[in-house]
Predict the structure of Sensor-like histidine kinase SenX3.
Amino acid sequence: MTQDKRFLELALNALDVAVVVCDIDGRAIFKNSQAERMFSTSYGNALAAREFQSLIDEAANGNYITQDFELYGPPKRSFLAKATPLIDNHQVVGFTATIEDVSLKKQLDDVRRDFVANVSHELKTPIGAMQLLAETMSIENDPEVLARLSARVEKEALRLGRIVEDLLDLSRIESSGSADLRSQGLEQVISEAVSRVATTASLKEVTVEVDMDKDAPDVAIDTRQMISALYNLLDNAIKYSDQGGHVTLSINCDDTWVLISVKDSGIGIPPRDIERIFERFYRVDQNRSRITGGTGLGLSIVRHVVENHKGRITVESEEGTGSTFTIWLPIKYEER
């Protein structure tokens, strides 16, 4: 029996959920290791004990109770607590309470909710514009006006298409959570990324220069994902450069990393915004983004691609001078 009890104790200690068993008087007769840790600090103990006692009081009436509570830390944590009366011969003989840390789940729910709200807003804008333009065209007879309105409809449709494409691209990269890494040179992905922005660069008369270290070694990359990341960096650099500007994509390396940098001579990024530019739909300048047609998803895509490659990305920027985004890729990729 002692061995069985020890085995049960080990099993309960292995759970990620705090488990407390109380007798009929509400005295804790067992706490697993998670529960012991939860009640270990004076501040956490006071708040958790208060919530725990309210659960036990309700369970004493024979009720099954579920309750949320938060410890404000730092860091702030969210918990889901459940209490169940233990019944023997139709009588309550004790209680079992479980307390689960749901902080990550709550954060994911918040991110998901914000994402849906942002997507709805971003899609609503071009759809609303196209609806208004269509209504105007239905009552307009002037050919010149109709031509201008048609051009506006086409522009909004392209904008809507870019949002959907970026959403699908981001969804694919996020859902995979990894990359199909194969050791190869960077010439192919660079050539393809530069080719994709050629039309945009031509329209703005922006020169795109590639400066590649000929001694750069092969590196483990997912071709599709890396093309997407470089395309988004180049596209941003061109969009936020002045007419006739200059963008440089350079490749350098040291003993540990291959560095891919995209440098522009554009408007730069205020220091207060640098920490947030990789968030979905975050824009430094809302008005300029509407003019350039940016979706606010490009840098988020870049961040996820870099994470999938176990690399990192850095930003150097000065307002009025330009920005440099650098992707650091490990030469020797290791599972971490």
